[in-house]
Design brief:
The protein is of the alpha+beta class. It is built from 17 helices and 21 strands. A hairpin with a 5-residue loop joins strand 11 and strand 12.
Length: about 450
Amino acid sequence: MNVNRRTLLGVTAGLAAAGRSDMAGAWTSPNWHALANDVRTQMAWAWDHYRQRAWGKDEIKPVSGTFSSFPLKTRHLGLSLIEALDTLWLMGLDTQFQDGVDWVKTSFDPNVDGEVSVFETSIRLVGGLLSAHLACGDAVLLAKARDLADRLLPAFATPTGMPYRFVNLKTGSVREPVTSPADIATYLPEWGTLSRLTGDPRYAAAARRAIVAVFDRRSRLDLVATKIDVLTGEWQSRTATVGSYCDSFFEYLWDSWQLFGDADCKRMYDVCTAAILKHQQVWKDGNFWIADVDFETGAIVSTEQDELASFYGGLLAQGGAIQQGAAYTESWAKVQARYGVLPEGYDYAASKPTQVTNALRPELIDAAFNLWLINRDPRWREIGRLHFEAMKRWNKAQFGYTDLADVTASPKRQADHCPGYWWSEQMKYYYLMFSDTVRFDYHDNYLSTEGNVLKGFKRELG
């Protein structure tokens, strides 16, 4: 195992030193500012199409030029517009940013008799409103974030403090007590920020209680599983993963330490990470993977990797395990090199996709961005460049950027959907990594799991 790790890290270091990419031969350092300008141009182009064809709607369908709703089934809350706001501000697209803020102030109204995911609504809409408020200082945006969080709070009224999965925004009725650590515990950065800005401690208290409730129910191996009943506190599955269902639980343990200096969250993160590295890390053919295991025995139950897990290399590096984080990111970069765009699922044992779609995902560039913030290694920028150029080649449609139906087809087959997180995440990661913008503090910052900037705006422009 140690030989494989040293070999892989030596290759990684050699690639960075030689200025080579996994997909090409020798190359000279790109013009990063030109790339940043291209990212900005693509964002403005996509925003114009959204403005013309889906203004105030949740998500544009870039192939057909129509739109779809999320998180409500039939009503729209301006999801993509709100998710885009802080990205527009960072890029200096000030007219577009102000147009979006004006829409929120006049048209955003969450008083809707409809059911939403508590988790998705918090990270996307509460987080998006908060980051836009922090960018420009408009108090109306903060008031709307608070109104929305108040509508989510009834979900937390359980015996364990862990929230139901769904809540009705108007009536406060709740549904689905069997949910996941990610759905339960991905709130404290946004809700702690809301408590700090409003002086109301309820939001941070509810979010923190939920995090502790999950951690306190970990197995004797210090692992958590994918499903739990929030009424009884009993686990409903035995699978431990760093992918979907658990990913942002680990992320927000570290993030709550990073953003607020919460030492208990740092301790919980360290315990969980040590257990993951002890029981779940696997080396195969010189590549580093994090297997799904039985959370009580540590036995491997699946060799399939969820694309969502590719963020985890950046989190490992943030938490101090930079060698493992770099190795995991390199393993995913090799899959990107093979297919151009990551498949949703990949079996590291069989070396083949298990799901050939890609929902315009940002996780690999998220990891590369966090690694780059730590050590400024040009290798991470190069992974970002490849990610951006592949997106331009394969995901660009007539009216914006769309997800893919098959990354293994030649040419790759497009679907017809641009998720709201595209506006908040990868376009921001690309721009921040390539631009060295004066609007962002590269040394003291925080981006949420949805890419929302809750710390790091520099409003004194140079």
